[in-house]
Amino acid sequence: MVSVLGLAACGGDGGGQTAQTPAAEGGGKQQVEVFSWWTGPGEADGLQAMKKIFEEKNPNYTFFDAAVAGGSGDKAKALLQSKLQASTPPDTFQGHAGAELQGYIKAGNLEDLTPLYDELKLKDVFPEQLVEQISVDGKIYSVPVNIHRSNVLWFNPAVLKEAGVAGAPKTIEEFVAALEKVKAKGKIPLSIGSEWTVTHLLESVLLGTLGADAYNALFKPGADWNSPQVTTALQSFAKIMEYAGDPQDDWQPAAKQVADGEAAFNIMGDWAYGYFHNPPEGGLGKTSKTDFDWAPSPGTEGTYLWLSDSFTLPKGAKNREGATAWLKVAASKEGQDAFNPKKGSIPARKDADQSLYTDYLADALKDWSSNKLAGSIQHGVAVNQPWLAAINEAVGLFIGTKDVKALQQALADAATANAQ
Ligand code: GAL
């Protein structure tokens, strides 16, 4: 039995295997089941760094990696839902700050972590507006481990040069012109991955067309998704999609097309930085500014389209104490400074060691402290899970039909049905 559990724990391969009990291993160690979707290249490196600290600090516990493969967690979240419904939660799970987490709180899935915040004085170290996103009625329900940026345009400088594109396009119009130039050279203008990466692209195009204030207003009750401004944004989105390459299996192979010089552009969150930059065991070991470069996605300079991964304590966790030990590491300066440079994110804590955040991450830290904020759609900030499912369905249909009018109507219907 011990070896079976041991094998499963090393898997983390998306099989959705989970521990049955907080089983004691030979040495009397109890396992802590940590549920995430960080299995793939680039994604897993940060988790491993935090796991190492957790096991050093907690010799009585072993880390059970219950990660389920699939970028953006679409498969993981579906499995999690069934586990929560069956009252067999993991000991802790990854959830996005914002509307997604509010959904778990309102469903009564999570324990209040305010006592942990008081014990560790966490209110002093996390930004106030972030704590609001993980609170209901003054109670705080998760530990944010990072801040990611969604609106990043990754590009291959040599491919741009070859196509006669002077630099990163700053507006949607410049972007379309650049895509056309790359197409004329026979390279893939814009790489894309599985369907969720297209919704990811859509949020950047909405923000780049509408600006931060009008974008943020889309998520308020009664917002007008049928406005001419949204029509313009969706027409631009349709135009940009004409330049997309063949859909890749997930975000990594799409990002890799840029790093390998097969494609010019990819709009993806800054987890792509970890993947490009980390050494070959987990990443691609590419050279920044030569093999890949970055800029805010067209039209979005000055706005941080943000999201935050956070860990929770589900009600009914089998190993509550072990989960709390994990949350303490996730909340700590040491844990965040080990995790984030590998993950391609900046720490949620305000007191991190800034010298560790160089290259792309130095830009991210600077922009996070000075930019306007807008919440990601695909990654749980702006819309709850039913709303996101409706948006994903509309985008999925659009990929086949290319019907802008139908897309706009479906997005408007999704907002009417789900905005609270
Ligand atoms: C996001 C998540 C990131 C990253 C990305 C790609 O939803 O917040 O940490 O994992 O998906 O899988």
Descriptive notes:
This protein has 420 residues and is α/β, with parallel strands linked by helices. It contains 18 helices and 15 strands. The protein has helices at residues 2-11, 43-57, 74-85, 99-106, 114-120, 128-133, 157-163, 172-184, 195-210, 212-217, 228-241, 251-259, 271-277, 320-331, 333-343, 360-370, 385-401, 404-418; strands at residues 30-35, 61-65, 92-96, 135-136, 139-140, 143-144, 146-149, 152-155, 188-190, 263-267, 293-296, 303-307, 309-311, 346-347, 372-375. Strand 4 (135-136) and strand 5 (139-140) form a beta hairpin. Residues 1-21 have low confidence and may be disordered.
* Biggest sheet, spatial arrangement of strands: 2-1-3-13-6
Binned strand content: 5-15%
Distance between the termini: 48 Å
Task: Please state the average pLDDT score.
Answer: 94
Q: Spans of 5+ residues with little confidence (pLDDT < 50)? A: 1-21
- Radius of gyration, rounded? 21 Å
Please state the structural category.
Answer: alpha/beta
- Which shape, going by the Cα principal axes? globular
The small molecules bound here are: beta-D-galactopyranose
Count the DSSP helices.
18
Tell me the number of strands: 15
Largest sheet properties: 5 strands, mixed
Helix content: 40-55%
